[in-house]
Amino acid sequence: MYMTTDEIRSTYLEFFRKNGHEVVRSSSLVPYNDPTLLFTNAGMNQFKDIYLGKETRPYLRATTAQKCVRAGGKQNDLDNVGYTARHHTFFEMLGNFSFGDYFKKEAIYYAWTLLTEGFKLPKESLTVTVYADDNEAYDIWKNVIGLPAEKIIRIGDNKGGAFNSDNFWQMGDTGPCGPCSEIFYDHGPGVWGGPPGSPEEDGDRFIEIWNIVFMQYNRKADGTFEKLKKPMIDNGLGLERIAAVLQGVHSNYDIDLFRTLIAKTAEILNVSDLSEKSLRVISDHIRSCSFLIADGVLPSNEGRGYVLRRIIRRAVRHGRLMGAKDVFFYKLVGTLCELMGKAYPELIEQRQLIEKTLKKEEEQFLNTLDRGLAMLDSELDKLGANRTIPGEVVFKLYDTYGFPADLTQDVVRDRGYIVDMDGFEKEMTKQRERAKSASTFGIDYNKELKLSDISIFDGYNHLSCEGKIVSMFKGSEPIESASTDE
Ligand code: ATP
Ligand code: MG
Ligand code: MG
Ligand code: MG
Fold first, then answer.
1. Is the pLDDT of residue 294 over 50?
2. Residue 134 predicted with pLDDT over 60
3. Is 0.95 exceeded by the ipTM?
4. Distance 474 CA to ligand 2 centre (A)
5. What's the first-to-final CA gap in the chain, in angstroms?
């Protein structure tokens, strides 16, 4: 049944609203009150304190369409973009949550009913995994839902081949945790798998669309598990992945939204082959970059801001790869606003800031990009049969030409080279030491730099001045962050 991305989002939220769930707005991509997390990367993040028993809400069931970024920290899909059919740096996770209310039976039943009746997916196309010893979930799939045994795969801590799944979820080393059940859609036989060692090796024939977490234990510091009095549910369905299924395409990059973004990118860059990997990369990156800026992250040399800078520079490099002569990336913001501004008005509210920031960042990088690429080429020539780029070269590219190490890796990946990350880190440490000893007034410039990390502010509550952003932290004094210049 064909549905647009917008229709799927609203159908999902409406289904759970009708089933007693409070519809809650997506939280910011900058996690509120959680310094352990780089970016919001799952629907449950904003409910973490409820799961931890530190907070209660007037509702026990909630549903959201959550903005997520997985481009740094523990969850990092940046290197998958352009290579797999199913990964983005920014995506929307549709979620439904039970805070000690319903548990396994209802969670499975809701997911199955929405997929097979709401979205009318053919039952034969769905396969599920359960954690190896989770007989309860197995029995529900088998006896309540009526799935044949060969469609229910038990997976232990070792990942399960084509079903790339580990099936035990934990919030951290301690705290709530429990087994998962994942629902995979079979796109049918085809050449979806990639060569061994590549990110797409596991194959994209069976694509994980829905992940149900059954939080039933509390893991204690000594490693033992204690049963939770009130077990909880955390569910996530990837919007772009279900859209691919419902729109009859294999790759997320062929859904309505990405087709439009890719077509626009191709038009701006005057590219005729719409299957170019770089088009997928750029159309992915414009979403994460725009949404991050809308939520108050600005390019900087540290922390969140540096992740943003790295994504922007990758996009710029991919533009160059397709012959971009001039600044182009910011020109996609208007199209993105048209596509997603209704669901996420912050995009429209912050449009000018997004465009200005992207434009400036690209202009800056263009000053050194070509020279850096030329330098890299000559270094590759010198390497001969050696396929590892020395740390000093990676550092020079970083220090002189503004190439983040992962960008260098991205440039050489398809040519079969890797970068010596340990060597690069050593050079970075040396530089930090040099900076420290150069400080005559006892100022630690590394600490000083950290200020630029604080480019996080309440996206709806900021002032933008020329070259400077006045940031406001909830509950603390306004902090003036470092200039966005390098
Ligand atoms: P995968 O194994 O495919 O990387 P995951 O197990 O890491 O996915 P979860 O953490 O279980 O993903 O997230 C819940 C759902 O969110 C997934 O089932 C999927 O539909 C979606 N999802 C996760 N990561 C991405 C991503 N990078 N891009 C698009 N959708 C994603
Ligand atoms: Mg993953
Ligand atoms: Mg998975
Ligand atoms: Mg999963």
1. yes
2. yes
3. yes
4. 31
5. 49
